[in-house]
Hints:
It catalyses: D-xylulose + ATP = D-xylulose 5-phosphate + ADP + H(+). The protein has 2 domains: 303 residues, Nucleotidyltransferase, domain 5 (2-Layer Sandwich), CATH 3.30.420.40; 80 residues, ATPase, nucleotide binding domain (Nucleotidyltransferase, domain 5, 2-Layer Sandwich), CATH 3.30.420.40. The longest helix is centred in the first third of the chain and has 16 residues. It is 28% helix and 26% strand. Helix 5 packs across helix 7. The chain has 17 helices and 25 strands. It is of the alpha+beta class.
Amino acid sequence: DFSRIHEGPVFPTSVVAIGVEVPNSCSSQILTMEEGDYSLPEASLFLGFDCSTQSLKATVLDANLVVVATEFVHFDSDLPHYKTEGGVYRDPLINGRIVSPPLMWVEALDVMLERLSKRLDLAKIVSISGSAQQHGSVYWKNGSFRILSSLNPDIRLVDQLGEAFSLKESPIWMDSSTTEQCKKIEEAVGGALELHCLTGSRAHERYVAPQVRKIYEKLPEVYHSTERISLVSSFMGSLLIGGYACIDETDGAGMNLMDIKERQWSNVALEATAPYLEQKLGKLAPSYAVSGFIAPYFANRFHFDKNCLVIQWSGDNPNSLAGLTLEAGDLAISLGTSDTVFGITDEPQPCLESHVFPIPVDTKGFMVMLVYKNGSLTREDVRNRCAEKSWEIFDNHLRQTPPLNEGKLGFYYKEHEILPPLPVGFHRYVLNNLTSHGLDGVIEQEVDEFDAPSEV
Length: 456
């Protein structure tokens, strides 16, 4: 029920507008259905995806929001030939460079639909949408639209799109290799606070603008051979419609390129990043808009109905907010590969540590968020070192330690941390004289290690 945070209907009841992106064009072709009866067929199903850092997940619901099926493709174990760890590559030569192969996401979709087609009649699915890790960017090579729009249903996606990318490895949200470009972009727009007020965030290494500027500066031949730049969310939507899906306004706010108040690309931010960038990005679209009909490839190969609609994908954090139907004053905590804290507001206040996005199901409100990079992968690292890679042993260690952990406090940064901005390192302290009544008389002492239960 989105009614509490959306003033109008999410989907029009009688007219549907579909935006189909044309390559190297800044406009969309809008196809409008005539008014008529669009009641859903009996036994209609709805398919939702989540393309995260480590896996692709799918959930199928019926019209009563009952879960009919779930499926899961884990990148490391189900697609081991890509040799990722936690779904990513860490560059041993370039400090902070962390990427993922976009072809892995393509093959994950192949595998996912093969599995689902053996369990369900995919012809009953009337609409598809999804969420994806934020900030990752995909670079389509010149001529890729032609490949994408003419896929052969007898051949797997992964075998047709191998040469579609001008950059074979996509920078993702964990990357921290663009500090130099962040400084240049902030200087060009008048400072960090000015960029935050304009785009919702100061320049962050993982954001698309500094990543694009880095490519333009260091790999100009790649930049000029790029026809379209997609986010991971619009990339997955593009596969499904057989054309370039728009970047949605909410995920687009996580790029340092969009004017968050106007929900349009900012000319100032574009000019501070790279030339001719707007035509490579295409148009923005509302997060609840229709991207297009499913591509003939999927109708022929997996027997989807040709009229199945693909709704705009968006970022995982904004979609979490939408699913929780938060109200003003609510805060949500998400513990994932990254940990986030977020809420909603009508008037976001400038704060360099925070991020601001338009709410995906509201044309006026904003989402405010704090992000901590060292989430589940760091917790798993502690589990692997101290609990024999077992969550059961991990839980037993937890039960062995009293509240406040006898004053033992640790900060664990397996990756360069976002908030606060700190380098890799583990920091352990013992707080002597710590009680539940306060900090008076506490004496801090740094130590090299804890016993396993205390570390957990």
